[in-house]
């Protein structure tokens, strides 16, 4: 068993910054497999709690740990076994962050500073859902609740104090904007060219909304037609026509512009479903795993999430100043988080030291009365004197201990005090802690 020292935080990340979409597909964990996967992660005695975030940009796990080396190796092995990707590749390509760097990374992710599209609006909700899934299944508790509380608060401050999300941006909006650019290069536009949208989930909904803003006429299909009809009713427009999913092969030949955003685990559109044509076709595949098989016909152009970089770069440059200000906010919240954690750990220590001093004085007072050293009628007054004396004696040390807890060097001092007074973590946690739990799921 590992000695239960103060909790550390760690991130293991596979993101668009280093891992291409083909490998991210292999590393991606299906929604129904996330809980069993995290249970396997938590089976390691060096890991306390875990949360898994899977989006089209990233697959990454956040853990609270006792010991870095064993935890890291266990996580690598779990990903290798689940994905079939070699352990050597995972070791070489995983981004590993610990403690302050891990917290900074998570706060940056929550604030959409680490996204492919800086300022995109979906990531905070995706992180909340990932945390809620882990929490509801008993895979995370105190450590991740503390962390996520600060992450969501940090993201809210970034949105409020910068204009990085002033205009709604997302992978979906970027894909629609890129499609409009491609059409303009061919003297076409979204108002006159009908669009086929496959998928009625959150990404499909966003695609439809952005297309409607550009006055496009949409044919919508979904594996569950009822969901497509519900989305059409929600958007409340005559510009959406719902068709049966069974008609997909025939519909593909009728549209030049297709967006696919399903949660399918295999290809929705295969190469045998596409017929070579003289007409240009643009496919935008914004799903992970991808919906569209690679096709090499001359007039067929397929764009996946990683192909949005040319539009993303324009967006990034436009928001460069806002991103700088946002990173400063993330730095401040990272510092505040660790200060807050240390404060949580020092107050119960101070409380217990005072308790020990009081218990010792009361014990000696009772002994003095029992032995006849002190008349019983003097007991209450002497207790008040003793109480004042130990409070006066402990005032300076406890003040210094609180000051030490507000620095990054406070941990060794606090641990030394706990050791000197034989104060265990169990005693410390009897005091409990309060952390606002974000409930806006």
Describe the structure.
With 441 residues, this protein is of the alpha/beta class. It folds into three domains: 160 residues, Glutamyl-tRNA reductase, N-terminal domain (Beta Polymerase, domain 2, 2-Layer Sandwich); 138 residues, Rossmann fold, CATH 3.40.50.720; 92 residues, no CATH class. Helix content is 53%, strand content 12%. The protein has 16 helices and ten strands. The protein has a six-stranded parallel β-sheet with strand order 7-6-5-8-9-10. Strand 2 and strand 3 form a beta hairpin. Helix 5 packs across helix 13, helix 6 runs antiparallel to helix 7 and helix 7 packs across helix 13. The longest helix is centred in the last third of the chain and has 52 residues. The chain is elongated. The N terminus and C terminus are likely disordered.
Low-pLDDT segments: 1-5, 430-441
What is the annotated CATH architecture of the largest domain? 2-Layer Sandwich
> CATH topology of the largest domain, anyone?
Beta Polymerase, domain 2
- Text of the CATH class of the largest domain: Alpha Beta
Which percent band covers the strand fraction? 5-15%
- Radius of gyration over all CA atoms, rounded: 29 Å
First-to-last CA distance: 36 Å
**CATH homologous superfamily descriptor of the largest domain:** Glutamyl-tRNA reductase, N-terminal domain
H and E string: EHHEEHHEHHHHEHEHEHEEEHHHHH
Average pLDDT over all residues: 87
How many structural domains?
3
Please provide the count of β strands. Answer: 10
The largest sheet has its strands arranged as 7-6-5-8-9-10
Q: Assign an overall shape.
A: elongated
Helix content: 40-55%
Helix/strand class: alpha/beta
Total count of helical runs of at least 4 residues: 16
Major beta-sheet overview: 6 strands, parallel
């Amino acid at each position: 068993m590992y000695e239960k020292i103060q909790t550390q935080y760690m991130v293991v990340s596979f993101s668009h910054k280093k891992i291409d979409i083909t490998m991210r597909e292999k590393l991606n964990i299906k929604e129904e497999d996330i809980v069993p996967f995290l249970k396997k992660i938590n089976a390691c005695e060096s890991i306390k709690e875990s949360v898994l975030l899977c989006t089209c940009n990233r697959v990454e796990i956040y853990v609270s740990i006792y010991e870095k080396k064993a935890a890291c190796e266990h996580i690598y092995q779990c990903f290798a076994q689940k994905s079939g990707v070699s352990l050597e590749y995972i070791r070489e390509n995983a981004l590993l962050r610990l403690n302050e760097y891990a917290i900074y990374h998570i706060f940056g992710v929550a604030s959409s500073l680490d996204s492919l599209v800086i300022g995109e609006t979906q990531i905070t909700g995706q992180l909340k859902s990932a945390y809620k899934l882990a929490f509801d299944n008993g895979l995370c508790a105190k450590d991740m609740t503390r962390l996520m509380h600060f992450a969501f608060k940090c993201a809210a401050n970034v949105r409020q104090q910068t204009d990085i999300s002033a205009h709604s941006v997302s992978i979906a909006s970027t894909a629609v904007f890129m499609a409009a650019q491609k059409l303009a290069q061919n003297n076409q536009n979204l108002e006159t060219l009908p669009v086929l949208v496959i998928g009625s989930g959150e990404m499909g909904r966003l695609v439809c909304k952005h297309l409607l803003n550009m006055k496009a006429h949409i044919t919508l299909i979904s594996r569950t037609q009822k969901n497509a009809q519900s989305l059409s009713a929600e958007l409340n427009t005559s510009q959406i026509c719902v068709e049966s999913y069974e008609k997909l092969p025939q519909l593909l030949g009728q549209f030049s512009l297709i967006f696919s955003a399903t949660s399918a685990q295999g290809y929705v559109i295969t190469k045998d479903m596409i017929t070579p044509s003289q007409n240009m076709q643009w496919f935008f595949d914004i799903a992970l795993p991808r919906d569209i098989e690679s096709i090499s016909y001359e007039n067929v152009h397929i764009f996946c999430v990683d192909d949005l970089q040319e539009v993303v770069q324009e967006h990034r440059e436009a928001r460069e100043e806002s991103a700088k200000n946002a990173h400063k906010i993330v730095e401040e919240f990272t510092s505040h988080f660790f200060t807050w954690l240390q404060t949580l750990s020092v107050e119960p220590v101070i409380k217990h030291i005072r308790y020990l001093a009081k218990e010792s004085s009361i014990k000696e007072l009772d002994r003095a009365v029992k032995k006849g050293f002190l008349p019983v009628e003097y007991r209450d007054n002497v207790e008040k004197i003793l109480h004042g004396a130990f409070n006066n004696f402990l005032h300076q040390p406890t003040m210094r201990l609180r000051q030490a807890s507000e620095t990054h060097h406070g941990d060794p001092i606090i641990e030394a005090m706990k050791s000197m007074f034989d104060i265990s973590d169990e005693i410390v946690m009897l005091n409990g802690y309060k952390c606002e739990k974000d409930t806006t799921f």
